[in-house]
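NADH-ubiquinone oxidoreductase chain 1
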Amino acid sequence: MLMSFIVCYVVILICVLVGVAFLTLLERSILGYIQIRKGPNKVGVMGVLQPFSDAISLFCSEQSYPFLSNFLFYFVSPVFSLCLALCLWLIFPIFFNMVDFELGLLFFLCVSSFGVYAMMGAGWSSNSKYAMLGAYRAVAQTISYEVSLALIILSCVVLVGGYDLLSFGGAQNEWWMVWGFFPLAIVWFSSCLAETNRSPFDFAEGESELVSGFNVEYSSGGFALIFMAEYGNILFMSLISVVIFLGGLGGMFIGKVVILSILFLWVRGTFPRFRYDSLMGLAWSIYLPLALNYLLFSFGACLFFVVVCM
């Protein structure tokens, strides 16, 4: 049983890493069409070998270490970030004999909240002012939007009656959650963009004022690991969004995940970056009250159905 679990998990990790590689190629293709230009997606046969060429180039190039950096945390932070992104896939129960978490969404919230330590460690250990400012921004942004994400998940869990991913599929056989909670789904998607540091909420990597944010001192393999963790989180947030709002793990599941991933990339080529104070005001003044109101609505709807059934 243990060996079967390990083999299945390794297969899923390989699929995720290959998916991350081709997600970068898809992003280049979409941005190329949006900006009416050509790019690496035209090299060879539709640029299929470009992601692997980039990976080989990054991991084989010379690694530079800041002289005054805290070497242990500087080295461990990118590895920790990628490990967290891959650990999230433990709650994915389809196709393989994986562990079916009864509290899968709570596991997701706990593991994703550890990501702030990886960003903080990367910024602090680099001993760079730009990296430290980027880490401060990233931590404040992530913690702010995690509150909204948790409340949105709790609103849906109250109606579904469980934290298991499979229970969301059974509860959405008749109608998808997005039809009843459309404003909440929009807030969820926007919070996912902020949680993964994607445009227009990529303040942790504000090139104009922070050079490159918390990862400014990273190169070669360290930068590649941070990059892979970011795109792995995009894929997983697309998966969770489909499970909660778009019918669960049912039919056309992979297609819906791909469409949501394309939306993540499309937003990057469409919207300009917000101001940082607008980002924080959006989280605490708009998204948090909206999520709390929907949570109260979910409790009221549940209580109403209980009274009617009795």
